[in-house]
Amino acid sequence: MGKIKVTTCDIEGLYVIEPTVFKDERGYFFESFSQREFEEKFGEYVKLGARAISSGGAGILAILEYIDVRGKDVIVPANTFWADVRAIQLAGGNPVFADCNKEDLCLSLEDLKKKVTANTKAVIVVHIGGHIAFQVKEIAAFCKAKGIELVED
C-alpha cells in the first residue's frame, strides 16, 4: 500500500488529503485515502468531530437521526431534491412542504412561519442553483427563537 499525500489548499491551515493509487492482491488498481486521517485532520481544523459521508443525502440522514426527528415534522421547501424528503422519511420524520420565494426559488420565511406547529422539530433550507437562499439569516434567527433545529443543504 502507498503513502498518503497531503497538500495544502486555499484555506489557511486546512490540508487536503489526495487519493493515492493502490494495487490490491488481485491486481486491480483503485484510488483511496485514509478516511480516518481525513476525519481527524478536518476535525482538528474545525475544532469539532468530523465524519466523512458518502453523499449529501447520507449526510442529511445522519443529521436528522442525530437530532432525532422520529415522529416529528421536518419542514422542507417544495423546490428540493428527493433525497432530502427521503432522508426525513428514513429518519422517521414527517416531511412538511413549504412554499418558495419567486426571487431565489428557496424556502419562504413567510410560508415557513405558517407551517410551524408544536410538532416541528427541524427545518431544512435547500440552497438552489449554486447560490445561498436569500432569507437564510432570517430563517436561522426564526428557528433559533422557536427552538427548531436548522439543517442546510
Care to give the gist of this entry?
The chain has 153 residues and is an alpha/beta fold. It is built from five helices and eight strands, in the order E-E-E-E-H-H-E-H-E-H-E-H-E. It has helices spanning 35-46, 56-66, 82-90, 109-115, 136-146; strands spanning 5-8, 15-18, 20-23, 29-32, 73-77, 94-98, 120-125, 149-152.
Give your account of this protein's structure.
With 153 residues, this protein is of the alpha/beta class. The protein contains 5 helices and 8 strands. It has helices at residues 35-46, 56-66, 82-90, 109-115, 136-146; strands spanning 5-8, 15-18, 20-23, 29-32, 73-77, 94-98, 120-125, 149-152. The strands form 3 sheets. The chain has a 4-stranded parallel sheet, sandwiched between helices. The chain has a two-stranded antiparallel ribbon with strand order 1-2. Strands 3-4 form a two-stranded antiparallel ribbon. Strand 1 (5-8) and strand 2 form a beta hairpin. The longest helix has 12 residues, at 35-46. The relative contact order is 0.12. Residues 1-9 have low confidence and may be disordered.
Helix and strand succession? EEEEHHEHEHEHE
Instruction: Give the proportion of residues in helices.
Output: 25-40%
**DSSP summary: helix tally:** 5
Which regions are unreliable across 5 or more consecutive residues at pLDDT < 50?
1-9
How do the strands of the widest beta sheet line up side by side?
6-5-7-8
Please give the largest β-sheet. 4 strands, parallel
Head-to-tail CA distance between termini: 36 Å
Gross morphology: globular
Instruction: List how many beta strands DSSP finds.
Output: 8
Secondary structural class = alpha/beta
What is the strand content?
15-25%
Mean pLDDT: 83
- Gyration radius (Cα, Å) is 19 Å
